[in-house]
Each structure stands twice: as structure tokens, then as C-alpha cells.
Amino acid sequence: MSLKSLTERALRGDGLVLTTKDKARAIAAQAKTVAGVPVSYADGGVASLDSGRYEDTPPYYAGGAILNDDFPGRGVRCTAGWPVIDGRGISYLLTAGHCGRPGGGWRNGEWSRWIGTATQEHAGHDLLLIDASSAGRMWDGSNTGDYTKRVAGWDWAYVNEWICQSGSTSGAVCGIQNTDNFTYASWFDADAYGNRNFLYDLVVARRADGGLPSQHGDSGGPVFGVSGVTDVVAKGTVTGHDGSTFYYQDFGTAWRDFGITPKIG
């Protein structure tokens, strides 16, 4: 039975839908009812205990910690954005332009794995493509990456829309709402190389409870919406914050700039 069918059953009140890393094992081990209520199982993609945001291995997921290879041992860290593919079938990770440069290399958060080399940048839009093996999943949960979710596609950003981000410092943060400003432009603080950058066409959002929507190290990470029980939709990539105000580049701009689309999980 498809995940969509299971979700529809739950909404109708036909039973419970439980997500699990190993659906076959769960079905074999668990009862088909709980207190007389029918139970169905869906693949939830919970991460194994020996991997996470900082120990990611190929194919790489959105939300993993990535280290700029130009600065070995200095901890210049950002977050992997969306796993994407271009019209030629080449695989990439999308991240923030201020994190690196074309020709620069990237490793995972423990420096134990080579990820790839950045090949394309749109500096003004704060976008960078890393030529890398990637797959359509996103690390979710805490900043260690407790589990992953399936990438279901992408969509435009909308006024007053509620969004989340999943960075390698903050973990998943929700309760962030778009304003009506989708063309913000300003000088931003120094990038990884000490240069100030003039960025434009950014989306402005705000965390409703006044807390921090992102932190240092979250840059480049996935900005997402939720879809159904276990899926996420690509909305953009993290640029930065000023108090509770959040700045990000929408995925539609990356699609126009590079001709890329998210990999579907």
C-alpha cells in the first residue's frame, strides 16, 4: 500500500500509521492492531545510530555538516543544502555561496570523507553547487541528525507561509513565517574568506516566538516545508539571520540560475 493511501486511511480514521526504518521487520514483530485499532506501517527512514549529520557518507543528504577544505583544521563549517540534479544528469549538493568558492573542496563534518568540489556559483544570490554524490533525503531532528525524511520535490515560497530549516548547528527549527519581502538586498558580514558580500533577491522571514531561526554553521542548509507524514519539500537554502529575522534564498531562484531540480527520495 502506498504512503499516500496509508495517510488517507489515517485521515479517515481507519487506523494508525506508524513510521519505521525497517517496515518489513516492524510488520513481522508487531501486532496488526493496538487496543483493537488497525495499525499500518510506512517507511520513515530513521537514521542508524552510526551515522548522522556529522558522519554522513555518500550519497550525501540535505542537512549534513560540511567542512570547507580550504581551511583544514579550522572548522569552517556550513550545512549541505538540497541534493539536486541538472539537465545533463550531473549530481550536486546545493549550499550557500558565502560558504566557499568554485574550485574549492568539501568534506563531511568529521573530516573523514571527501564530498566533492564546488563547480558553479551565483555569488549575488548566495548559491553554490558542489559536484557530489547525493540522494533525495534530508537529515531532520536534532543537530546530530536523529532521522531522515524523503525529499518529495520543490515549490515556490509564498507570503505568510510557515517554513522550517534544518542546519548542522541548530537542528530542525520550525515556527518561521515568511514576510511579503522576497527581494531583500543588503551587504552581509564576511564570508569564509573574509570578504563582505552584497546579496539580493533574498526572502525575509521571522521566527514567531522571537528565538533564533538559525545559527553559525547552518548556512547553506535546507529550508523546507512538510508534505504528508514523512516527506519534505525544498523551499530554499539558509543565508543567515539578524535576531529572529531569517534570510534565505528560495529554491525557485536556484532552479532559474542553474537549471537544477531536487532529487526525489
Write up what this structure looks like.
There is one protein chain. The protein has 265 residues and is mainly beta. The protein is 9% helix and 47% strand. The protein has helices at 3-12, 23-29, 251-258; strands at 16-20, 33-34, 37-43, 60-62, 65-68, 77-79, 83-86, 91-95, 105-108, 114-122, 127-132, 134-140, 147-154, 162-167, 171-178, 184-188, 197-207, 222-227, 231-242, 245-250, 260-262. The strands form 3 sheets. Strands 6-5-9-10-11-8-7-21 form an 8-stranded antiparallel beta sheet. The protein starts with a helix and ends with a strand.
How much helix, percentage-wise, in residues? under 10%
Mean pLDDT: 86
Morphology: globular
Secondary-structure element sequence? Answer: HEHEEEEEEEEEEEEEEEEEEEHE
Strand order of the largest sheet: 6-5-9-10-11-8-7-21
Beta-strand percentage range: over 45%
- What is the rounded distance between the termini? 17 Å
What's the alpha carbon Rg, rounded to whole Å? 19 Å
Put simply, the count of helices is: 3
List how many beta strands DSSP finds.
Answer: 21
Biggest sheet, in brief? 8 strands, antiparallel
Oligomer: single chain
| Unreliably modeled segments | 1-37, 39-49
Secondary-structure class: mainly beta
Give a quick precis of the structure:
The chain is mostly beta strands and 265 residues long. The chain has helices spanning 3-12, 23-29, 251-258, and strands at residues 16-20, 33-34, 37-43, 60-62, 65-68, 77-79, 83-86, 91-95, 105-108, 114-122, 127-132, 134-140, 147-154, 162-167, 171-178, 184-188, 197-207, 222-227, 231-242, 245-250, 260-262.
